[in-house]
């Protein structure tokens, strides 16, 4: 009854099932890898945010890239803001998804080196965003600031194109090496997203804490794919049993029909014989 498995239809079904199982297992493994990566990043971010503040000079230096473990670390710096060389970063949104600018102000440290400080978000003056916006001034004189250490921005990491020919004092990406060339000074690698002290009237708006990536969703997807992989052979077995059962039922129905036909034929022959005997008498 299982010779039907050699038919073209069932060979295709079986091959498709055999291909689906490893494919689904691999997809589940990929989702689990994504879960592990996101969970690891979440732990790094949480550890960095919970760490005690340290002087920025301990982690950042000219030409030194900010590492994954250093990202979001709370740092402090003492110096003064240089608003003469201040620039704004285009096409940035706030918590309400309003498009505006980030304010990037050089912060001159006591030793003369420069730290790039992202002071926060301000709205654009108009839809064209070609004119330099009105930027609230930072505190004058020497001040100690606090913020989160961030790596230089790249198009690959941010998805923001580094456009050329921008209006004066406007940039697309925060790049410490490029700013060092513009300023003609030693600039510490990366930048700091300022969190304290708070600005007057709340402008610029301080940048919020980084959100946690949803690693649990990838875990759920991984389990889902593996359940699908386990369901494929079960479904194949159920289909095979049902096909065999239906074939047995059709075969049994065919045998019953043949017996009825043979019985009817025998009754007819007996009737003909009786009729012949009656005629002879």
Automatic annotation (TrEMBL):
Residues 257-268 have a biased composition (Basic and acidic residues). InterPro entries: Surf1/Shy1, Surf1/Surf4. Residues 248-281 are annotated as: Disordered. One of its GO terms (cellular component) is plasma membrane. It is found in: Cell membrane; Membrane. It comes from the Bacteria. The chain crosses the membrane at residues 219-240. The lineage of its organism: Bacteria, Bacillati, Actinomycetota, Actinomycetes, Kitasatosporales. This is SURF1-like protein.
